[in-house]
Amino acid sequence: MRVALHSLLREGQEDGYEHAHQRIPDDLDAAFRRVGIHDWTIWRSGRHLFHVVDCDDFGAAMDALDSDPANLRWQAFINRYVDRFVTGPDGGTARPEVWRLRRQRGEVR
Between the chain's N and C termini, which has fewer beta carbons within 10 Å? Predict the structure, then answer.
């Protein structure tokens, strides 16, 4: 499963956020592995962050991380930089993939 997320940084927190993501804590990486998150990529444009998460089941992973000590520590730390996640009309933040060039070419399933 591949989902996209959109979040917004607090004013003036761009550099701090990027510095914080030079390397995430090893216990958070281990938690991601346990819940089936295989990759997480983040791009930034100004204060806007665009995430792509490759995982087994995004909803299940987020549910499992809700009580994970490593994730709770990370969220307490990183929330000083993040203003909010941008949600859709249904209140959700995860966006299913609409189109991918490599899929059209038959290079990925």
Answer: C
Quick: pLDDT tens for 35-63. 999 999 999 999 999 999 999 999 999 99
Is 1 buried (19+), middle (13-18) or exposed (0-12) by CB count in 10 A?
middle
Q: Which domains does the chain have, with CATH numbers?
A: 2-101 (3.30.70.100)
The encoded tokens of residue 101 equal 């060039």
User: What contacts 24+ positions apart, CB below 8 Å, involve 57-61?
Assistant: 57/1, 58/1, 58/3, 58/94, 59/94, 60/35, 60/36, 61/32, 61/35, 61/36, 61/37
Beta carbons within 8 Å of 49's beta carbon, 6+ residues apart: 5, 6, 7, 8, 9, 17, 42, 43, 82
